[in-house]
Amino acid sequence: MPAFITGARGHDFGRHSPADLLSAIGQAGFACTQLAYTKAVEGVKSYADVTPALVAATKEAAAQTGVQIAVYGTYVELSYVDEDRRKAEVAKVLSQIGNAKILGARCMGSETTPMAKQPGVSRKDAQEALLRSLSEILPACEEAGVLFGIECVYHHAMNTPEATKMVLDTIASPNLRIICDLANYIGAENAALDAQRRIWDKVGSWYGDKICAVHFKGVAFKPDGSHYSTSLEDSVIDYAGGFAMLRQLPQASLPVLREEAVPARAASDIAFMEQFYK
């Protein structure tokens, strides 16, 4: 069973200097974070603003606070079918591999592009674009010894366990990993407990050993099927079943990152999350 390490997404704490950001995360009771410079650090508008001095300051802050960089967040659109746009997004990732390595991040991470960002594009075409992007990113990650995690999301290009398995099998890189957000597998039509349990079975048996991080948030559904964020206590997600699967995995440890964290609620959120670890 992995040792689960409770953390939080950095940009839920607002924009700060690396020292102030990691200090706030640690003081809230979290041991690790998902750091996205363009969303969480003051003065960073693009990856061009991520300087060697900033990375060095972040590394020092992590050492001083003891807050580990679990995921180096690169929020990019890997499934654009327009080749110029797609290649520009890939270039962002390639520019950050060295920084992820310097920071000792457990993995880099990205989602795979909402389908709504490309009206009229089929999911098949979006997934083919994703495969092209990953085929350009993973060789550089392998050379640097950096893991790259992608996240299955219900309304994105990679949206089901089946699609995730296809991507893993096609790319077949030892450095490709999966970020597992239980809530992001679920829509209104598969929110019933038995349907969720079938999804966890697929995730665990097909690629559970490839999971590099876990996201944790609350979700429920309106009568029209649209989803909305909730407290963890009010969520419809089957955390018990999801963690029953995660506890069977061979990883020595796994970060579990609270998304949409409210610092004032950190203590109750941590208690809620950690009840599922054993």
UniProtKB/TrEMBL annotation:
Ranges of residues in domain Xylose isomerase-like TIM barrel: 25-250
Listed GO MF terms: isomerase activity
Keywords: Isomerase
UniProt-listed InterPro entries: IolE/XylAMocC-like, Xyl_isomerase-like_sf, Xyl_isomerase-like_TIM-brl
Pfam short name (any one): AP_endonuc_2
Keyword Isomerase: yes
Annotated protein name in UniProt: Sugar phosphate isomerase/epimerase
